[in-house]
Design brief:
The chain has two domains: about 280 residues, Aldehyde Dehydrogenase, Chain A, domain 1, CATH 3.40.605; about 180 residues, Aldehyde Dehydrogenase, Chain A, domain 2. The protein is built from 14 helices and 24 strands. α1 crosses α5, α1 crosses α6 and α3 runs parallel beside α4. Bound molecules: nicotinamide-adenine-dinucleotide (NAD).
Length: about 475
C-alpha cells in the first residue's frame, strides 16, 4: 500500500526519517504531466514529521561530523555508484513525474546527479586546504567545520539534479540533511533515500519529508534546530522563507527565478545565435536560466527573426519519452494556465505573437507551443515577469550601451547570454551586465567548481566548489601564537 512500482523501481510513498519509513494520515497525489495518470499517493507531512526529521538529523550529526571528510567520501562514492547503477530507472521515473525529456535525463541530468555527489565528496578531501598565513608571527589556520542540520527545499523542474546540487556539498561538508522535494515531483527523492541507505549512510544523516510547501516546507524553515536553509524556487516563496528564518537567524542560500537577457550583436554569427536561441526553449521553457528576452541589434533583427521562426517551426513537440521529441509538456494544469495567462495579457496589451501563442491543440494535455512575442510595450509584464514556459520575447537595440541598459532593466540577475563576433566587444558588454552567470557564444556550460547563483532578486549567495562549503560549513580561523609552547 505504501509502495508503487514505476519504471522498474520500487517507490516508497512515505517519508524517510531516521532510517525508517514513516507514514502520515493524509496523502497527496503525484500526477504525470505526460498523460494525467496518478502515479502515487504520497505522504503529506506537517510539523510533527518535521520535528521528527530534524530531531533524527540532529542526533545523527555528531557521528557524521566525526567520520571526517575521508569516511564520508567513501559512503558518498558508493552512493554515486548506486545512482549510476539505477540511472535508467531514475531517468524514466523522473520523466514520468515531471515530463522532462527522457534522453536528457539519461544522458545529462542523472549523470550529473552522480557527479554532484562525487565531486563535492572529493572537493572536501582535497580542495579545502587554505594556505596558512602569518600575522606578526601568529599562524592563521582556516577550517570548514560541519555546521549541523541543513534543510534543502527544491522545485519541480529538475528535481533530483537540483536536490543533489545542494545535498552533495552539504553531506560532504559534514552536515546532516532534511530534504523537502516539490509536491509536484516527489518520487525520485524517495528512491534516492533508499540508495543512501544501501550505500551505508547512517540512519538520520539523510531524511526526506514529503508534503506541501505551506505545510512541511514552512515548518522546516521555521524550525529552531536547523543550521542552514538552502532553497531553490520562486521569489515569493523565498521572501516567506526569509521572514521565517529571521526568527532564528538561520543562514539562507537562495537560487531563485530569472528573466535573463539574450543579446545578439550585429557582428554575431547568425547561425550560432539562432542555434543557441532555440535552446532557450529546452525543458519546455521551465529553466530558471533561460535567456527569455531576445535583445537583437536592429541591423540584423529581421534576418534573425526570420531564421529563428523557421527553426522554431521545426521543433518536435510531444511525448518526452520519444527520442525525437525536443519539447515536452508543462508540469501541471495550474502551470499551463499560468503560462497561457501571460501570453493572453501580452496580446491584450497590444503585443504581437510572432508564432505559437497557446496550448498545442493537436496534442491536447499540457503542451504549450514554442512562442515568440514581438513589439511588447517597454516595462510590460511579458518583458519583466518570469513566465517559466516556452515563451520568449524579442526587442531590438541600436547600440551596445542600449543593449546593456535593456538587459539590466529587470529585478532579476540570474544569467545572461551574449552572442558576439568580437572578443573585446563581448568583454565590454559583459563587464556591465548584472548576472551571476554569463555565457558568451555558448549556453549551459556548467562547471561544479565555478560559482553559481543570482544577483538582485535572483538569489542570495553563491554555491559551487569552495563557495558551497563556505555556506554549509562554519568557516573558522584559529590563530596560533608563536609563544607559550613547552619545548
Ligand atoms: P516554488 O517557490 O513554488 O516552490 C519551490 C519549493 O518551495 C517547493 O518544494 C515548495 O513546496 C516549497 N515551498 C512553497 N512554499 C513554501 C513555504 N512557505 N515555505 C517553505 N517552502 C515552501 O517554486 P516552483 O514553482 O517549484 O519552481 C519554479 C521556480 O524555481 C522558478 O521561479 C524558477 O526560476 C526557480 N528555479 C531557480 C533555480 C536556480 O538555480 N536559480 C533553479 C530551478 C528553478
Amino acid at each position: 500500500m505504501h509502495q508503487v512500482t514505476l519504471a522498474g523501481l520500487t517507490v516508497d510513498t512515505r517519508h524517510y526519517i531516521g532510517g525508517q519509513r514513516v507514514a502520515s494520515d493524509d496523502t497527496f497525489e503525484s500526477v504525470s504531466p505526460i498523460d494525467g495518470q496518478v502515479l502515487a499517493h504520497v505522504a503529506r507531512g506537517g510539523s510533527a514529521e518535521v520535528d521528527q526529521a530534524v530531531a533524527a538529523a540532529r542526533a545523527a550529526f555528531p557521528g557524521w561530523r566525526d567520520l571526517g571528510a575521508e569516511g564520508r567520501r567513501e559512503i558518498l562514492h558508493r552512493l554515486a555508484d548506486l545512482v549510476e547503477r539505477d540511472l535508467e530507472g531514475l531517468a524514466n521515473l523522473e520523466t514520468l513525474d515531471n515530463g522532462s525529456l527522457l534522453r536528457s535525463h539519461r544522458r545529462g541530468v542523472m549523470p550529473r546527479v552522480a557527479m554532484n555527489i562525487r565531486f563535492f565528496a572529493d572537493w572536501a578531501m582535497n580542495k579545502l586546504d587554505h594556505p596558512v598565513w602569518q600575522t606578526r608571527g601568529h599562524d592563521n589556520v582556516v577550517t570548514w567545520d560541519p555546521s549541523g542540520v541543513a534543510v534543502i527545499i527544491t522545485p519541480w523542474n529538475a528535481p533530483l539534479m537540483l536536490a543533489t546540487w545542494r545535498i552533495g556539498p552539504a553531506l560532504a561538508a559534514g552536515d546532516t540533511v532534511v530534504l523537502k522535494p516539490a509536491e509536484w515531483t516527489p518520487l525520485t527523492a524517495s528512491v534516492f533515500a533508499d540508495l543512501c541507505e544501501r550505500a551505508g549512510m547512517p540512519a538520520g544523516v539523510f531524511n526526506v519529508v514529503q508534503g506541501y510547501g505551506t505545510e512541511a516546507g514552512a515548518a522546516l524553515v521555521a524550525h529552531p534546530g536547523v543550521a542552514r536553509i538552502a532553497f531553490t524556487g520562486s521569489v515569493p516563496t523565498a521572501k516567506a522563507i526569509m521572514r521565517s528564518a529571521a526568527d532564528n537567524l538561520t543562514p539562507v542560500s537562495f537560487e531563485l527565478g530569472g528573466k535573463s537577457p539574450f543579446i545578439v550583436t550585429d557582428d554575431a554569427d547568425l547561425d550560432l545565435a539562432v542555434d543557441i536561441a532555440i535552446e532557450q526553449y529546452d525543458n519546455a521553457g521551465q529553466v530558471c536560466l533561460s535567456g527569455t528576452r531576445l535583445l537583437v541589434h536592429e541591423n540584423i533583427a529581421d534576418a534573425f527573426a526570420k531564421r529563428f521562426a523557421e527553426r522554431a517551426a521545426q521543433i518536435v513537440q510531444g511525448d518526452p519519452r520519444d527520442e525525437a521529441t525536443q519539447i515536452g509538456p508543462q508540469i501541471h494544469r495550474v502551470h499551463l494556465d499560468r503560462v497561457t495567462g501571460f501570453v493572453e495579457r501580452a496580446r491584450a496589451e497590444g503585443a504581437q505573437v510572432a508564432f505559437g501563442g497557446g496550448p498545442n491543440d493537436e496534442l491536447g494535455g499540457l503542451y504549450f507551443r514554442p512562442t515568440l512575442i514581438a513589439d511588447a510595450k517597454p516595462g510590460s509584464e511579458i518583458l519583466t515577469a518570469e513566465v517559466f514556459g516556452p515563451v520568449l520575447a524579442m526587442q531590438t537595440f541600436a547600440s551596445d550601451d542600449d543593449a546593456v541598459e535593456l538587459a539590466n532593466n529587470t529585478e532579476f540577475g540570474l544569467a545572461a547570454v551574449v552572442v558576439c563576433g568580437d572578443r573585446e566587444r563581448a568583454e565590454r558588454l559583459t563587464k556591465n551586465l548584472v548576472a551571476g552567470t554569463i555565457w558568451v557564444n555558448c549556453f549551459f556550460v556548467r562547471d561544479l567548481a565555478a560559482p553559481f547563483g543570482g544577483s538582485k532578486k535572483s538569489g542570495i549567495g553563491r554555491e559551487g566548489g569552495t563557495w558551497s562549503f563556505d555556506f554549509y560549513a562554519d568557516v573558522k580561523n584559529t590563530v596560533y601564537a608563536p609563544t607559550g609552547w613547552k619545548d
